[in-house]
Design a protein that fits this description.
homodimer, alpha/beta, 5-stranded mixed sheet, 5 helices, 40% helix
């Protein structure tokens, strides 16, 4: 999760909502991503989408059932839907997203075999986001 | 929808699940997409995702609230979640997807302002898919 936080900080430097993700296979990071929706002018350019696409590329297969994604914030329905198609093995996230987290809609957006762990480095992940929006509002 | 069907046929030629999409603004097609998950080895490479990303690019903005997407099959939760972020104005789809359509999970995956129309050229859209899977199975 510390590596996902590093990705989130890369987004912050670009004045993007600071969310970062990494995908791990066999104890190695096989892909990284950070939010680039403003930079790329693309509403789908979330950290998770980029990390998933890059992981499939580096893994040489569409399915990531042996992989774990670490992401600093609870994924939205789009990203959870993408994880479904990737058959993601495990999802670990830091902060919850009470406004647009996938769990607000349904846990069933994820693949039934995906193991979910939440609250890892929650404070750090959450602070990065809340500081960003506080600064935007002021 | 006929243009979306043409996109689906492009997917079929590449031995991809034949789904196609176009985005229309001001009576003009501003983007096109067809399913490329196998070709790109990317589980997120659905027709709708590509059409949305291309539309944002061509439109010069992240928000597509003045646009209509025509897609041959009911979008999955990932694609519906992407349409939420794009604030898509209208969604028109052909065939329903009783296995993985977003409505199985919740209509709330879409943006509350997105107007939904279904069943346009339903038979043609549906036949393309069912013929594809019949052929795969035989």
């Amino acid at each position: 999760m510390k590596e996902a936080l590093k990705e989130a900080e890369k987004a912050l430097v670009k004045d993007e909502v600071p969310i970062g993700a990494v995908v791990v296979w066999n104890n190695k990071i096989i892909s990284r991503g950070h939010n680039l929706t403003e930079t790329l002018n693309d509403p789908t350019a979330h950290a998770e989408m980029q990390a998933l696409t890059a992981a499939s590329n580096s893994f040489g297969g569409k399915y990531l059932d042996q992989c774990t994604m670490y992401v600093t914030v609870e994924p939205c329905p789009m990203c959870a839907g993408a994880m479904y198609w990737a058959h993601l093995g495990s999802l670990v996230f830091g902060a919850t997203d009470p406004k647009r987290g996938f769990r607000l809609i349904s846990n069933n957006i994820l693949h039934p075999k995906t193991v979910i762990t939440s609250g890892i480095l929650e404070k750090e992940c959450s602070k990065l986001i809340s500081d960003f929006f506080k600064k935007k509002r002021s």
